[in-house]
Amino acid sequence: MKLIHTLAVTTALAAVFAAAPAYAQTRIALVVKSLGNGFFEAAARGAEEAAGELGDVEIIYTGPTEPTAEAQIEVVNSLIAQQVDAIAISANDPDALVPALQRAMQRGITVISWDSGVAPEGREMHLNPSSNDLIGNTIIKLSADHLPDGGDVAILSATATATNQNIWIAEAEKVLPDYEGINLVATVYGDDQSDKSYREAQGLISSYPGLKAIIAPTTVGIVAAAQAVTDAGKIGEINVTGLALPSEMAAHIKSGASQSFAIWNPIDLGYSATYIAHALATDAATAEPGATISIGRVGEVTIGEDGQAAMAEPFTYDASNIDEFATIF
User: Fold this and answer.
1) What is the model's pTM?
2) Which residue intervals define the domain Periplasmic binding protein in the entry (predicted)?
């Protein structure tokens, strides 16, 4: 009888432990425009750093191989099926992703956008890496600083539908009158693909013989443009600037193809997006206008009336600091 009683107790305890829920991690999917992009890989490093600090977070780093809305929609649908807790997405299109992300929210998944935004109805809030007006002014100023007598400049963007690119270009156009003699002659699109961006840069060089600067607010486009200027033997005649990763532009700074460029720290961006997604998914914060959310070592953000928040100002890199930062990202 004693053996039977012991077995019964053991069986009962096993049943209790089996029924008890396992320790639940918050699963946050960091969805990028496309895989294989150094900027987004650095953001993933920041996300993992934040996960380590928060202690109960699993990062799912994912995205399509091609930077299209259709490919991102497939990724989102897969994450819905996996029942992740949060999706933090850098969008390839502000509107096309909305229905899929709405389905995610209807299933209780927290959705935020970061870097490149989603229309308000498709997310709870958006994290800008910086304020759009500051970025727009910065990319024009970077070219004007090295053109004391003015000159023709052109913009090489990513896709024609990229939310962030289009906003930054619009802000840049607004401040053009503040920079006497700077004349924007064209805006072209390389679709964030190295080969196409290179060809578009070549087209600008041949179409505008007096071109003095190519501004590329995309990490893929600026490297391709700098290479095109180098191959065309135009170093010293055409300055390439915009937004870039220090590690990818170090050689072009040293060659003189680029005098300077700017970028926020993508590590900090992925880190901050993770903190925000975690706070919203765990109900530690809300995405209401005026709400302030901690982003760990970066500080805090305050959500504006438009459901957006800005992380920090862009930082300029040149020959004086490129070696230091090229080893970081």
Assistant:
1) 0.78
2) 28-282
